[in-house]
UniProtKB/TrEMBL annotation:
Residues 251-364, 606-728 form the Alpha 1,4-glycosyltransferase domain. The keyword Nucleotidyltransferase does not apply. Keywords: Membrane, Transmembrane, Transmembrane helix. The lineage of its organism: Eukaryota, Viridiplantae, Streptophyta, Embryophyta, Tracheophyta. This is Uncharacterized protein At2g38150. The chain crosses the membrane at residues 27-46. Gene3D superfamilies: 3.90.550.20. The keyword Membrane applies.
Length: 736
């Protein structure tokens, strides 16, 4: 192939997948029209793959040569960069008639996927299964599937022809635009969205059952027709569903609802929002379809396909710790066997979990795989050794008075005496069994191909984590869809915390609440000696609430040790900030010179081990004063940066103007909550919203000033929250 050939050809070749190898065989014809199971190797295992492993071509000059299109998400954050990446890759020496293409490489088809296939045939001995996969439609794939074929199972792999599949469907034009590089593929790996589209196209053209590859079938689907499963429902009402899922789909050929799914995919495609073209898509369309196409489809309750949500499922892999756990496990098995058609394993959560006991759910299926199959660690709040009953009891007894709040108007000596008495119960200052998993859990989270790693800190009781904090997290993910967030919080890393955060987990957001290990964080930093002095009981903690000063320390330490973005919890995010590096925002500036006069530490973006972060820690440890508000936080970062200036080693820093992070100061912020009373004020609201959306990454709400102010309809805040928040509900007159 000549180097000056059309740049767009590489993407066209990626998407222009060849026809089925078995098209002319009787087996293929029978399978297409009598298929009982349609299993696409891309459904959920693709969440564990990088974009680099998505599309491959074999070179005729090398038996194992591969050309890879695309790259990891962090390299292509902007739309124009992603389009350029698709058009700039060229394939040298490519034989058009013999491509090797895969949605997922055959090496990813392992024991779990074999387990899924095996369970299909246990429940449907006479069934036919087509695995739609370019990588398994090969000699290597034949070898992998041979144990299944040797058992007499009617299973084969076939490479899809996407052009043929999408002919005479609403997605044809979308596909052509993507091939011609006229459409932004988005940050989400393209193979995930192609998988979402392919399952719809197959069901529309041929009918049958689509299954993800991490679904264990437990009983026959016989009798099911034109059905989809609910993932979540309104509590206490199994028929009032709130979220569907596309991991299991059962539909007849040419079904109007599936056509509507494809139409929605083509017309609303967004490659930047996780789930937008998958579970959220089928949910949106089905909600509308109840009024337009009637009752020609069935929504089954969660127990049918998703009896355990992705936060609860890790306990099915664990050995019962006592009689309560054993009773709970038996109840789970009864429910699974009596009411469920299968079990979705939520690969992203359970892929690396080990099955601890031969009595676990998977082993009870009598499938030919060892119980110690390495199947990521649960990212929920409970560890495998957690005594659930005792933890729940302790949460119900959570004190209203924060133990980190010193007595009001106490003298220095009184505060020291108070602190000495409190020290034994202040677990936040200790390395405990639970906190020692901090490092592992944070690394597990950030190993999930995050576009950026974010930190928030919550040192108050879990019950005080309210709508405003939920708003901050929700808008973070709506503007930074590929982000990962660790909330450093002992109180939220609990069953009660899980309940509070559940609406966010249900959105599919990539976050965890994790117990802080402050001794670990400050180890080998200038603040290590300061913590030792504090724990000795001979140091005045100050009149400022201790949790505020510990929060100031923790944000510095976590950024120094891990790098990333630290954020306060009273923020509304307006724009994607994943491209920022080594940045801090000015809170105020001189109107004449435009030079900053004060910085703020509510938003900080720094590389791991940045020398400026170490200077911040040094300043904290040597000049700490717990009696002056802001002294260890905004004033600290301001005086350090002012002192260091542009000295070598410290000038790798961007200081943003107030518009970036603090577009409205704490004096004027209240105006944003008020509805316009005149036409002039209405125009001001409109212009302010436009200016913020265009020129600001976020808006800081200045909690101390606005916590009790209600949002009035038509106000700037009402408009911003309505636009950027997905879980806020009715925000009018609320105290967000």
């Amino acid at each position: 192939m000549e180097k000056d050939n059309c740049n767009k050809k590489s993407l066209s070749e990626v998407l222009d997948v060849r026809q089925f190898r078995h098209t002319n065989s009787p087996v293929f014809s029978t399978a297409i029209f009598a298929v009982i199971m349609l299993l696409v190797v891309a459904g959920t295992i693709l969440s564990n793959m990088s974009l680099k492993s998505t599309f491959f071509w074999s070179s005729p000059t090398s038996e194992n040569g591969e050309e890879v299109i695309g790259s990891s998400k962090e390299h292509y954050k902007q739309r124009q960069d992603r389009l350029a990446s698709l058009t700039s890759n060229r394939i040298r020496g490519f034989q058009v008639d013999q491509p090797f293409r895969a949605v997922s490489s055959d090496e990813y088809f392992g024991k779990r996927e074999m387990l899924a296939v095996e369970s299909v045939f246990k429940a449907h001995p006479q069934g036919c299964l087509m695995i739609v996969s370019g990588s398994l439609d090969s000699l290597q794939g034949d070898s992998i599937l041979k144990p299944l074929n040797d058992r007499g199972y009617k299973v084969f792999a076939a490479t899809p022809d996407m052009s043929l599949l999408l002919e005479n469907t609403p997605a044809k034009s979308w596909f052509q635009e993507m091939k011609s590089c006229k459409r932004d593929p988005g940050r989400i790996p393209l193979h995930q969205n192609l998988s979402n589209l392919a399952r719809l196209a197959f069901l529309y053209k041929y009918g049958g059952v689509y299954l993800d590859t991490d679904f264990i079938v437990t009983r026959s689907f016989k009798g099911l027709k034109n059905s989809i499963g609910a993932q979540t429902v309104v509590e206490g009402d199994s028929k009032n569903w709130t979220r569907l899922n596309n991991a299991v789909l059962i539909f007849e050929k040419d079904h109007p609802l599936v056509y509507s799914f494809i139409e929605e995919f083509a017309s609303t495609f967004d490659g930047n929002k996780w789930g937008h073209n998958g579970p959220y898509l089928v949910t949106r369309v089905a909600q509308r379809a109840r009024e337009t196409i009637g009752d020609n489809f069935t929504v089954l309750p969660p127990v049918a396909f998703y009896p355990f949500n992705w936060l609860d499922i890790p306990r099915l892999f664990q050995t019962p710790r006592g009689s309560n756990d054993s009773t709970l496990l038996k109840t789970d098995l009864v429910k699974l066997n009596r009411e469920s058609y299968g079990l979705h394993l939520w690969n992203k959560i359970t892929r690396k979990l080990k099955i601890e006991s031969p009595k676990s759910t998977l082993y009870d299926n009598n499938l030919p795989f060892k119980p110690n199959v390495p199947l990521p660690r649960p990212y929920g709040p409970m560890s495998s050794s957690c005594n659930i009953n005792s933890v729940v009891d302790s949460e119900h007894k959570e004190k209203e008075l924060d133990p980190l709040l010193p007595p009001r108007k106490a003298s220095k000596n009184q505060r020291i005496d108070w602190f000495r008495r409190k020290l034994p119960e202040l677990e936040i200052l200790k390395s405990t069994t639970k906190s020692k998993s901090f490092h592992t859990r944070v690394l597990d989270l950030y190993n999930k191909n995050c576009s950026a790693q974010f930190f928030m800190i919550w040192l108050s009781p879990a019950n005080s984590f309210g709508p405003r904090e939920m708003l901050a997290i929700d808008t973070l993910f709506t503007t930074n869809p590929g982000a990962c967030l660790a909330i450093l919080s002992n109180s939220l890393d609990s069953p009660n915390g899980y309940t509070i955060l559940k609406p966010l987990f249900d959105q599919g957001f990539n976050l965890i609440a994790v117990t802080i290990d402050i001794p670990f964080l400050v180890k080998n930093t200038p603040a290590e000696a300061w913590l030792k002095r504090l724990k000795s009981g001979n140091m005045d903690p100050g009149s400022i609430p201790l949790f505020m000063n510990l929060s100031d320390l923790t944000r510095l330490a976590v950024l120094y040790k891990y790098g990333g973005v630290y954020l306060d919890t009273d923020i509304i995010f307006l724009n994607d900030m994943t491209g920022l590096r080594n940045a801090i925002g000015a809170q105020s500036s001189d109107p004449a010179t435009k030079r900053w006069t004060r910085l703020n530490n509510a938003v900080m973006v720094f590389d791991i081990y940045h020398p400026l972060m170490r200077e911040f820690l040094q300043e904290y440890a040597t000049t700490f004063d717990g009696n002056k508000w802001g002294y260890n936080s905004p004033y600290l970062v301001s005086r350090v940066i002012k002192r260091l200036g542009n000295k070598p080693g410290y000038n790798n820093l961007t200081i943003f103007s107030p518009d970036a992070f603090y577009p409205v100061n704490w004096i004027k912020i209240q105006k944003l909550f008020k509805k316009p009373a005149t036409t002039r004020e209405a125009k001001w609201v409109e212009k302010t919203v436009q200016d913020m959306n265009k020129g600001s990454y976020m808006i800081h709400l200045w909690n101390k000033v606005t916590r009790k102010i209600k949002i009035e309809e038509g106000s700037v805040m009402h408009t911003l929250v309505s636009t950027h928040c997905t879980v806020c509900g009715n925000i009018t007159n609320s105290h967000i």
